[in-house]
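Justification of resources, computational component.

The compute hours requested in this renewal are based largely on the per-chain cost of generating structure records like the one below. Each record pairs the submitted sequence with a full structure-token output. That output is archived, and it is also reused by downstream analysis tasks.
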Amino acid sequence: MSGTIRPIPTATGEILPDAMGITSLHEHIALRQGDVHWDESMAYAITELKRAKDLGLHTIADVGPPDDVAGIREVARATGINIICCTGFYLLQRSQLGMKAADFQDKMLKDIEHGLQGTDVRPGVIKTASTRMPIRPAERELFIAAARIQQRYHLPICIHSVSGCAEQQSILEEAGADLNHCYFSHIEATFGWAGRTVEQEVDYLEGVVAKGSTLSFNNFGNWNHTKPEDLARIIHELTRRGYADRMVATMDVTWSFEHGKLKLLWEDTNVNGKDRTYAYLLDTAVPWMQANGIPKAVTDQFIIDNPRRIFTHRTA
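The structure output for this chain reads:
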């Protein structure tokens, strides 16, 4: 294949896809500028990422979008983890519901051309989201903007997709996105299935991967959102149908503070929920998949080969 492989910008400089190693494509480093708990958050992020690195984790994508890019760069330097930052938007605020594609594009262009939050850190991935079906007009505009930015800068798109990933994909496709470099997160959450059975959900998801996109699973251990037998069934069946190269495994780590105490997202609704941090992917989720009959060769695809493919782009 001809052409030069584009480097991937990270918080500490560019890397080539072959340097990604074991990768988790949907994570967060919950540093918030000016927060009274900033030091505690920083210490937690460094400690937990070091634990994950000891198990083999090498790269994460922070798909916030981030609140404190300078702080994230400090975390990357302290841990040796490659941290890919993002541009784009999460769930839209009321003040953003009147925005058009050009407005969203302007923000993303600024981040890419001039750096995130006044730093020289460039984003390596685009974040988009919609809340529920039907997709609202401003969310449609956001997806159109993301597709146009991707066409110009060849960045992958990470989509928050609890519900309606096929509908989201259709908007991106119509706007000219490269679906091979789009991955849809949280799609295994049962409350986003619009009443479909697990068998019907597999068929629905097959329509998405058949077009070349990737599904991102993160509910390992978060069994209040997805039954373990359902998640295993989805992965098994899509693998059987030939789509092992269109799935990734990740954790979606994030946290907040309640009454001055750090609280990991969903820790209070899951047994051993406090353990569901970055290291959980390698010390629990991957062994769980293998114990449920998913071969190591397939789980390696989920955390090594498929993330690398999504982030590999060759110049013409």
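The mean pLDDT is 97. The chain has one domain: 8-310.
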